[in-house]
Write a structure and sequence with these properties.
Layout: E1 3-11, E2 24-31, E3 37-41, E4 46-53, E5 59-61, E6 82-83, E7 89-90, E8 94-97, E9 100-103, E10 112-113, E11 126-130, E12 133-140, E13 151-159, E14 164-173, E15 181-182, E16 186-187, E17 190-191, E18 205-208, E19 212-213, E20 228-229, E21 241-242, H1 252-257, E22 261-265, E23 282-288, E24 294-300, E25 304-308, E26 332-337, E27 352-353, E28 359-369
Antiparallel strand pairs: 1-2, 2-3, 3-4, 4-5, 6-16, 7-10, 8-9, 11-12, 12-13, 13-14, 14-28, 15-27, 17-26, 18-21, 18-23, 19-20, 19-22, 22-25, 23-24, 24-28, 25-26
């Protein structure tokens, strides 16, 4: 049985017109029977901290984050936040749905990224405690960031005594919405299993249940041949490799991304035409630190997992430790999601949500030691 506490972390500033502002930003702490904790906030429906033991029983916070809520506002790394309406990239910020073309913000080179500059990650969600879980809800207006359809979304966080954090994302179009939309939600948490303030993650070992990945062009949009086999490339993590072992090889995909920033297709995902048609959790990845003995295993109902080795973390607003600054490759994100640019790729499992349908996707992070 979780103990859940909440405290006011601050208040949003008033708008220039004085019509809004002063809304509470809440910090939630979930503590399980082992004393392991998860901290969350309603700003961006974000994971602020996860404190779990190493193989000697010593507790440490193993996700990157900030100790001031203001640092989460429009931060580049989207640290621990729930991103949407469409996570990852949409080519040139445009897609066509039901014969209509929609134009979105271009905020990552020539492309649209993570729902745009005022996407879900940069919104204040409504938070509540429901029994043993924390639930965040957000209403996205029709036309927000260029997307069609008024959408209600929820991010539900469950933390159990086995040190598994499960995130369930729900989305439904509002009753008065006649238009379909596209939805792809994930969490952008960064892990460092030696402790968030321990430096590089290049010594961490990664294993992926994926024999295919999505090679991209220079702007990180999947190429026509994606997914492609990982065999014979530095993208093959079917057997364990440290993140640093091949990250600086002269492999074009790694050169363009300044490291790993790619989506892998999870083996065993059913051949379905829509992500709405899979509700089975599939094992996707394991990250392990020999130094601390900690591991985190990721499972999901989503078809893909984006591995991002924090190649642009330098210059973060701050860290949770005074005097310590996050640098490039000090954390690794494992973002379970639909494939990038799916709205423009009919060959990928689709992300269209129509009136009356429910989007439901789950991500489970299981922490342990060996």
């Amino acid at each position: 049985m979780n103990e859940i506490t909440q405290q006011v972390w601050g208040f949003t500033p008033a708008s220039p017109t004085g019509e809004s502002g002063g809304e509470p930003v809440i910090l939630y702490t979930m503590t399980n029977a082992n004393g392991a904790t998860v901290r969350l906030t309603n700003y961006g429906a974000a994971i602020v901290g996860v404190t779990v033991p190493d193989r000697m029983g010593k507790m440490a916070d193993v996700v990157l984050g900030y100790d001031r809520w203001q640092s989460y506002v429009a931060d580049g790394p989207a640290m621990g936040k729930s991103v949407g309406r469409y996570a990852n990239r949409i080519a040139e910020g445009t897609f066509t749905l039901d014969g209509k073309t929609f134009r979105l913000a271009v905020n990552n080179g020539p492309n649209h990224l993570h729902g745009g500059p005022t996407g879900f990650a940069n919104r204040l969600w409504e938070g509540r405690v429901e029994g043993d879980r924390v639930v965040f809800g957000y209403r996205s207006a029709d036309g927000e960031e260029g997307y069609p359809g008024a959408l209600y979304v929820e991010a539900c966080y469950d933390w159990d005594d086995d040190n598994t954090l499960e995130i369930t994302y729900f989305a439904r179009l509002e009753e008065d919405s006649a238009e379909a939309t596209v939805v792809n939600l994930t969490n952008h948490v960064y892990f460092n299993l030696n402790g968030h303030d321990s430096g590089s993650v290049l010594g961490h070992t990664l294993t992926l249940k994926a024999s295919r990945y999505l090679p991209t062009d220079q702007t990180a949009i999947p190429l026509p041949e994606a997914p492609a086999p990982t065999e014979g490339t530095p993208m093959d993590f079917r057997t364990p490799h440290t993140l640093g072992e091949r990250i600086d090889e002269p492999f074009q995909q790694l050169v363009w991304g300044k490291g790993y920033d790619h989506c892998w297709a999870i083996d065993g995902y059913p051949e379905v035409d829509s992500v709405l048609k899979n509700d089975t959790l599939l094992p996707a990845a394991e990250l392990y630190s020999e130094e601390s003995g900690r591991f985190v295993k990721a499972s999901t109902t989503q078809p893909g997992i984006q591995i991002y080795t924090g190649n642009w973390l330098s210059g973060c607003p701050q860290s949770k430790t005074e005097g310590f600054a996050y640098e490039d490759r000090y954390g690794v994100a494992m973002e379970c999601q639909a494939f990038p640019d799916t709205p423009n790729r009919p060959d990928f499992p689709g992300v269209v949500l129509r009136p009356g349908e429910t989007y439901k996707q789950r991500i489970a992070y299981e922490f342990g030691t060996r």
